[in-house]
Amino acid sequence: MVFQCQACRAPVFVRYRIKNIGAQRIDFYSTPHEVEKPGERFNFAYVPDTVAVNFRDALACYRAGLMQAFAVTCRATAQVIFEELGESGKQRIFDELDEIIRIAELDDDVAANVRRIIFDSDASSIYFPGGLDKVTAAVLVEIMKDVLHQSYIRHARLRKVLTMRQFFADPGDFPDAEADPKVLPITRNWRGTGA
Fold first, then answer.
1. Are 16 and 105 found together in one domain?
2. Domain check: are 14 and 72 in the same one?
3. SS3 breakdown of the chain: % helix, strand, coil, rounded to 5?
4. Are the C-beta atoms of 97 and 166 separated by less than 8 Å?
5. pLDDT category, 38, cuts 50, 70, 90?
6. Does 58 lie in the same domain as 108?
């Protein structure tokens, strides 16, 4: 059967086991088995390509249910972020993770596993006997999205909006804007028709 996600309108494929087949009726067991997870939505517009490549792989692994590979690609994503942002950026992300754990009131085991995946540099520490559990993976995907948002997207959007606000406040501070053919000149005396 196919359902539609109310949040993102993506198709959700599920399979039900059949309990009984009658002449006029088919009875299913009440618990469905998910066939395929819908893709995770994330806006990569402001994320550097070196980071985006790794996180796209992480999301693909998560969608396919490859939890061990998901943990490995999340760690690879985090390592690239740390290389780009430096030691101060790594410390800021560590502090943000502590705040997320406090706000979400995460279980100690889940929090320890997430910290281990993101921050531990020992390659053997990424191994989870039996694979990464679904709860930790679900928390990890949201934390990684938040880390990328706070590290790249929020800063880029804020700079863009502030530049735009400054321009409209005083376009004289941006002399090259009038010479740029892509910028439409603003007439301050324009009046709408009210229609």
1. no
2. no
3. 60, 10, 30
4. no
5. low
6. yes
Measured distance CA(55)–CA(144) in Å, rounded: 8
Residue 190 has pLDDT above 60, yes or no: no
With respect to residue 148, please indicate whether it lies within any of the assigned structural domains.
yes
Burial call 32-44: b when 16+ CB within 10 Å, e when fewer: eeeeeebebebee
- The residue written with tokens 């390592």 in the block is 79
Nearest to 122, CA basis, from 79, 62, 80: 79
Residue 150 has pLDDT above 60, yes or no: yes
Residue entry with tokens 């109310």 = 6
> Tens of pLDDT along 132-147?
888 899 999 999 999 9
Q: Which two tokens stand for residue 148?
A: 């990328």
Say what angle helices 134-148 and 67-104 make with each other, to 10 degrees: 70
Q: Is pLDDT at 151 greater than 70 in this prediction? A: yes
182 assigned to some structural domain: no
Residue 131, domain extent: 40-152
Q: Say which residues have a Cβ less than 8 Å from residue 37's Cβ, sequence separation at least 6.
A: 62, 63, 64, 65
